[in-house]
Structure formats: C-alpha cells, structure tokens
Amino acid sequence: MSEHTEVRLPLVNKLIKLGWDKNQLHYEPEWRVPKTPSDASKRELGQSFKSFPVDLAIFDHPSHVGLYEHLQIIFETKAPKKNEGINQLKIYMNLEPHVLLGIWTNGTDITFVYRTADGKFDVKGKSSLPKPTDSLIVSGEKKLEWKDLEEPTTSDLKKIFKRLLNIVVARDTKSTRRDDQLNNLCNVILAKLEGDKIAKYLPSEPMPFQVWNTEDETATKIKELYQGMRRSHRDLFMTDIDQDINLDSHTLHSCAFELSRYQLRDTSISVISEAFQIFRTSSLKAEEGQYYTPYPVIRSAIKLLEIKPSDTVLDPACGTGGFLLESYRQLIDSHPNMSHSDAIGWANRNLYGVDKDRINIKLTKAIMLIIGDGSTNTYLGDSIRTHLWSSSFPQLQSALTPDTFTCIVTNPPFGKDLKVSKVDAKAAGLTISRKVKNENDGSISFSKILQEEREIGIVFLERCYELLTVKGRLGIILPETYMFSPSYRWLRYWLQDKLELKGMLNIPMEAFQGFCRAKTNFYIFEKIGK
C-alpha cells in the first residue's frame, strides 16, 4: 500500500501535470506482461496466459488503453535497487515489442531504458519524466550499415507492417483518410527499398534509411530517398499527391525505427508474399467488389496452371500482385536449374498486371522490387473499357494486345451491383453484353444491335478470351451461379465456341469469410482455336 500511495500515485499526478491524459494511463488493475514468448502468442490468440504485473503503463491514445499493440511506456517501481529494476524492464520490453521506453523510478531517482533501432537497449539517467511531445525513439550507439541488417521472417514482417499501419492511423497529424494513409505508407516502403539499394552498393557507409539524431533529420533523409525512387520509377507516381510523402516527421521517425534494422530488398519470396497480406487486406474496397484472395487459394490455383518458362502471364485485375508473385515463385521452384538472373529476366519480360487502383499497382511494384525485379509490367488502368485507353490509359494499348498471353489468372471484382453499363459495353465493342433471346426451339441467340448491362466478372471472360493465344489457359475465380444456375444458361452458349472448361477448383465459403458470402470456384479454361 505504501508503494502505491508514496510512489505510484504521485507519479501519476506528475504525468498528468506534464500533459498526459489520465485515460492513457493504466495502473488499476496493473497491466500484465506475458512471462514467455509462448505466453505472448497465447495473448495474441485471445487465450489466457501467465504474466508479470507492471506498475504503470502508458498507451498512445486513450481509446487504445488495453490494446498491447498500442503500448508505449512501462514503469517499474517495485525493485528495491536501480540495477534490478533496469534488468526487469529489459525482460518486460523483450516480451512487449511495441514498448519504446521503460522507466525505473523510486520517486526521486529516474532512469530511462530506450529500445534502440538496432534492437538493443540504451540506458540513460534522467532528471525529469517525459512529456507527451517528447520523442521516445533513439538511434543507438552507432549508425546501421548494410552488414547489420537482418533478413526478416514472415512473422517479423507481418508484425512490422501491422505496427506501421497502427502508427500511421493512430498518430499521424497530416494523413487522416485510409486511402491516403496506405498510399503514403507504401511510399515509405518504396523509400526503404531505395535506401536498401544504396546501402547494398555502399556497404561500409551508414544506411540512409534509419533513425537519425532528430525526427526532422530522419524525415528529410526518407523524403530524399523517396524522390530518388520517383526519378527511377516515374510510372508509379502520376498524380500531384505523390510529389512528396505526406506524413509528419514524428510518424516517419517511427517508421524508420520499425523498418531500419531489416533488409527488405532481396528478401525471400515466400516471406514477402505472406507478409504483404497485411497491406492487401487493408487496401480492399469491398464496395467496389475487391475481395482478398487467400494465399492457399492463390497457391493452389497457380499450381494447377503449371507456369512454364515459355509462358507470358497476365492478371488483368491484379490487386496487389498475389497471383503474379506466386507465378514467379512456383516457376523458380519447379525449375531449379534456372539461375537467379534468368528468373529475374523472365519476370521482366513475361509478367504483366493491370489494376484500376493506383495503390494496388504501387504495392505490386513494391513487392516485385523487393524480390529483385524492378521492371515488371504493371499498369494503372481499366482492362475492360478499352474505349478509354487512348485518352486515359495509353500504355494499355501496347501492353494488352490480342492473342498475346499464354496464361491469364485473375480474381476479378464481382457483386450483383457491379456491372458494365450498356453504353460502356457498346463503346468497348463487347459481344458478351449483347441482349439475350431465348428461341422457341430451346436455343439461345444474341442481338447484333441491342446491349444489356453485365456483371463485371462476366465481362472479364471476354476480355481474357481476346487476350489469350489459341490454347492459352485462363484461370479465373467467379461466383458458382455463373456456371451452374439456369438463369445464366446463356453464358454457357456464349462460351461454347470460345473457351473450353478444363477443370474446376471448389473454393470453400470460409475462404472469403469476412469479405463476401458468394460461393465461388476457380475455373480453368482453354481458348479454342478458330
């Protein structure tokens, strides 16, 4: 009781006077730190776990109190001696990876334990407690060089990306809309890739992308790297909002802290593919029919298509490039004699992606840059409305030429309200949208003049048919009703002399649970020769 009244309560009062919101402070009941990494995993799963009590914890915002991902500072006042208290804090901070600062105090003496950007601890004696405006991040004893970087595991990278999203959403003062936040965060990752490239070529020089001495200095370095990336990849930055990274210095300093010790460029494909699921899920727009394709579905689909070195692969609704990346990964796995340079060359020449969302295209390009390929053919544009290409998407005119691709794989947007209008269908010269007529003999015919609006997923069948070579393969995820419902009998008529169904992969309803409730299948077609 004396410790609570003589040390902890006065400590709480001092923090409130310094500007901390009382609702950010957690001390009754005490915050519980997992005792072991295994206990930390149980906590992530929502299970009961063994724990240590912490005297006082501070979260980044009152609305986040109780969420371990937002824990910023912990205090230790129990240990009778300073060294014991400092060691206890280090143990706790190893088990709470989001904590940036541990503080030991007995009421008069104060010691700070910072987590440094290189994963170590920096102990500093202090005369006063931190204010809410103080930076909690320090750079460490020496600046990071290329040799100091670690190759992240899938788990590492997933947690980092999740923390980055939390940082931008919870704390940035400039960016408040989700699209804008995700776009700027993608720009930060592109700046990190540019920094990795420079560091790899100058291994004995300090990494340009890391925590520097002040928040402003770190932000300036990151923005310089971003401008270098803009000069190298102009196709990624086509709008005014991409002139600079629109995040405040505090956020960029935090991003550098999270990312700097890990090597992103040349990280293994499997790690990148799974880790980027965090961004894929965040970039979805369900109202526009965008549904995250689970990795097991992507893996199985590409395996069935058997990608070969002779293939030219397209995803005309590529999202963040999951099918493209998996095509590249499986090609390498199934052809062990292919050298790394040959594989990169194949990706440069033979992988194509198109998407209407510029953030998706930017993420796709970022993923391909990470695995070492910097010139994958990924384009911003509308694969369906070809009448817009000359004015809005001129690159598509040369990239998406008919009878070009030996393999197309895609998960197009779908939904009952997502349709191509009659006007657009006519302007794009679509035949699949022609008005259907049921003849007296039970057959079906199509008007040569009248058009109907069509679900966008169905329209993708015609676009893919046009782009495929004869005997080219199409793998496409579509609602089951398109192929089996009597109301879509006309679609089977349209398909019969164009695309032959070769196989089907049943996708469980649970695969898209949380995104949509439509029952879908992965269909494999082959283009029929004239």
In short:
It is built from 19 helices and 19 strands. With 530 residues, it is α/β, with parallel strands linked by helices.
Characterise this structure.
- The protein is of the alpha/beta class.
- The chain has three domains: 2-126, Alpha-Beta Complex (tt1808, chain A), CATH 3.90.1570; 146-259; 283-527, Rossmann fold (3-Layer(aba) Sandwich).
- The protein is 39% helix and 19% strand.
- It has helices spanning 2-17, 37-44, 82-95, 154-171, 178-201, 215-232, 249-259, 269-275, 277-282, 295-305, 322-334, 340-350, 358-370, 389-392, 394-399, 422-427, 456-467, 481-484, 489-495, and strands at residues 25-26, 31-34, 51-54, 56-59, 71-76, 101-105, 110-115, 121-126, 313-315, 351-355, 377-380, 405-410, 419-420, 434-438, 444-451, 454-455, 468-479, 499-507, 520-527.
- The longest helix is centred in the middle third of the chain and has 24 residues, at 178-201.
- The model is unreliable at 284-289 (pLDDT under 50).
Strand order of the largest sheet: 11-10-9-12-17-19-18
Radius of gyration: 27 Å
The structural domain count equals 3
- CATH topology name of the largest domain: Rossmann fold
**Structure class:** alpha/beta
First and last CA, distance: 88 Å
CATH architecture field of the largest domain:
3-Layer(aba) Sandwich
Task: Extract low-pLDDT stretches.
Answer: 284-289
| Shape annotation | elongated
Number of strands: 19
CATH class of the largest domain equals: Alpha Beta
CATH homologous superfamily label of the largest domain: Vaccinia Virus protein VP39
Count of DSSP-assigned helices: 19
Helix amount: 25-40%
Q: Strand fraction band?
A: 15-25%
Average of per-residue pLDDT values: 86
Largest sheet: 7 strands, mixed
